[in-house]
């Protein structure tokens, strides 16, 4: 799984390790990765868990990671694409490959990673993929005329777009798996509103707007926020193409379960176009014939 060194990702990794899953934590910070390994091993002594270097903001790093995993020749039963950056301040930044940082890290890096790991997923008996989206996807728009937000940049707009892209990716992946016989169960999740300690301008604005006195009622811990991902990853009731999240107040808190997929995320023709653009941008070509959807 990606981004398992802290916060939500750490809690997902810990839950999987406690359930007996062999876990690879993939991240860019070796020190934080080793610290997460130590904590997980102390809480789940029987767990088989290791760290691998992966920078999703660098397509060369993505390719090198996939090659290292492929050499080991083990099936991948579960891929959790969790890593991401949120509303980075200080103006527009770009990845090594020139993508807007949030779109490049949160979505395009995961698109490339999943495509490169597809052969190992397909040899698994019951492969699953979990894409971590966000409540912010509701405010997202895929702007094909300015996908990297070079003309009009807003950090929150960039974040929302990247998380909508993750949800659309999950659904399109399921459609392609069904059409081409890949045998994948692809699901997306959102964690609700999680108290992660991030200090972004967007987060501060929303906290101030709702009032700090209501925060305990409208937010939950990272451990609680991890439950939708653990449900999608392990539950026999998780459905292909499903979307799971917190089911309580405004989908911000509460137990995991199915949540509403908005009209934009369900637009198959738009998802097809995003897929094709993503192949061009990343250079990762997925197998199979061209798929054509109507909206």
Major pleated sheet: 5 strands, mixed
Average pLDDT, rounded to a whole number, is 92
Mass-distribution shape: globular
Written as H for each helix and E for each strand, in order along the chain, the element string is: HEHEHEHEHEHHHHEEH
The structural domain count equals 1
Question: How big a fraction of the residues is strand?
Answer: 5-15%
* Amount of helix: 40-55%
**Termini separation (Å)?**
32 Å
**Roughly how many Å is the radius of gyration?**
18 Å
| CATH-scheme architecture | 3-Layer(aba) Sandwich
How would you write the strand order of the largest sheet? Answer: 3-4-5-6-7
Low-confidence stretches: 199-205
Describe this structure in words.
Strand 1, helix 2 and strand 2 (49-53) form a beta-alpha-beta unit. It is built from ten helices and seven strands. It has 295 residues and is of the alpha/beta class. The strands form two sheets. A five-stranded mixed sheet has the order 3-4-5-6-7, sandwiched between helices. A two-stranded parallel ribbon has the order 1-2. Helix 3 packs parallel to helix 4 (101-122), helix 4 (101-122) packs parallel to helix 5 (155-180) and helix 4 (101-122) crosses helix 10 (268-282). The protein is globular. The chain has one domain: NAD(P)-binding Rossmann-like Domain (Rossmann fold), CATH 3.40.50. Helices cover 43% and strands 11% of the residues.
């Amino acid at each position: 799984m990606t981004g398992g060194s802290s916060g939500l990702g750490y809690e997902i990794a810990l839950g999987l390790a406690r359930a007996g899953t062999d876990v690879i934590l993939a991240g860019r910070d070796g020190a934080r990765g080793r610290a997460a390994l130590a904590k997980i091993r102390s809480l789940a002594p029987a767990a088989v868990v290791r760290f691998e270097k992966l920078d999703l903001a660098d397509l060369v790093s993505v390719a090198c990671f996939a090659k290292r995993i492929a050499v080991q020749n083990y099936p991948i039963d579960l891929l959790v694409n969790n890593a991401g950056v949120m509303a980075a301040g200080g103006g527009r930044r770009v990845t090594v490959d020139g993508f807007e940082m949030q779109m490049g890290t949160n979505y395009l890096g995961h698109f490339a990673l999943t495509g490169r790991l597809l052969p190992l997923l397909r040899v698994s008996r019951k492969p699953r993929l979990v894409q971590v989206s966000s409540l912010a996807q509701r405010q997202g728009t895929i702007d094909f005329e300015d996908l990297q937000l070079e003309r009009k940049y807003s950090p929150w707009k960039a974040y929302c777009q990247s998380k909508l892209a993750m949800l659309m990716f999950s659904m399109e992946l399921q459609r392609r798996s069904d059409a081409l016989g890949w045998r994948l169960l692809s699901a997306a999740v959102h964690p609700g509103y999680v108290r992660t300690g991030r200090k972004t301008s967007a987060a501060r604005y929303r906290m101030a707007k709702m009032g700090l006195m209501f925060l305990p009622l409208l937010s939950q811990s990272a451990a609680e926020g991890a439950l939708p991902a653990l449900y999608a990853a392990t539950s026999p009731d998780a459905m292909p193409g499903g979307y799971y999240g917190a089911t309580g107040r405004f989908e911000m808190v509460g137990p995991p379960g199915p949540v509403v997929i908005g009209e934009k995320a369900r637009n198959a023709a738009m998802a097809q176009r995003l897929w094709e653009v993503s192949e061009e941008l990343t250079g990762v070509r997925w197998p199979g014939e061209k798929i054509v959807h109507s909206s």
